[in-house]
Amino acid sequence: MGLRNLLTLLSVLSVFLWTDGFAQELDKQSQPEVLRVIYGSPLEGGENFNRVYQLRLLKAALDASGQRYELIPAGRDLVQSRLLKEIAAKRVDVYWSMTSVNREQLLQPIRIPLDKGLNGWRVMLVRKSQQDVFANIRSLEDLARYVLLQGHDWPDTSILKFNGLLVDTSQHPEQLFDMLRKGRGQAFPRAVVEINAEANAHQAEFTVDPYLALYYPSAVYFFVHKDNQPLAHAIEIGLKRLQVSGQFEQMFWQEYGAALKQLNLAGRLMLSMRNPELPLATPLNDKALWYHPRPLD
Hints:
Blueprint: H1 3-30, E1 35-39, H2 46-51, H3 53-65, E2 69-73, H4 80-88, E3 95-98, H5 101-106, E4 108-110, E5 121-127, H6 140-143, E6 147-151, H7 155-162, E7 166-170, H8 173-181, E8 188-191, H9 195-201, E9 206-208, E10 212-215, E11 220-224, H10 229-245, H11 247-263, E12 269-272
Parallel strand pairs: 1-2, 6-7, 10-12
Antiparallel strand pairs: 3-11, 4-11, 5-8, 5-9, 5-10
Helix pairs in contact: 3-10
């Protein structure tokens, strides 16, 4: 090979190598940055995600978003109020909670209710000897003649009182069962996702009232720091894609379907209440975001 041909070949080869390297660098730059996502949980591993619906939903949303990410547990067992403060301090990136005006002032909500508003549905645990105590109730005014039991600092307590209902409280949840047992209240309103297990655990004494369902508008959202827009965007895009694909609905019914079928909310008298802590930005008009009782749920 002549010198001129060798120089030409080397020149072409160098251009090719430079172009290929440049293309690889551009490809790297075009790939989304890996988000390190510290989530509120003391536990690690797949067992954690299998147990907790909200964590399964978080992972599915991030998968659907197309954003590269790494999920990291906070590694500390913190109560919800503390976890939200940790997000505000940028030590934790995401957790889920019932929304309120104060929480939305402090943190950034992703306004897609994870439980489709089920958190605002309540049915009542009553003594077996009084299982028909609410058979003739037709309104909140009728129900206001009875004492309901709740935790001292639970959001439900202030909502029930705001709607004119009588409430007796305790700081210790287990004490509320004892108060019901002793007749200090006629009913213990419980979330639809927890009451069946509690009734089974106390089946010798208590049962689920078959007549009423209390409802107030409520949303459980993922919350992130207001400055963490990349994470907020990824979660929102992912949740919307899960809705479009039908996976969100499938996960919802896998988690809550058995309880809803057993309680048959559509067959109960629904007593609607106002929630004074509900932010004005709550997307109540988007019917697809919310659970609506239907026969034989």
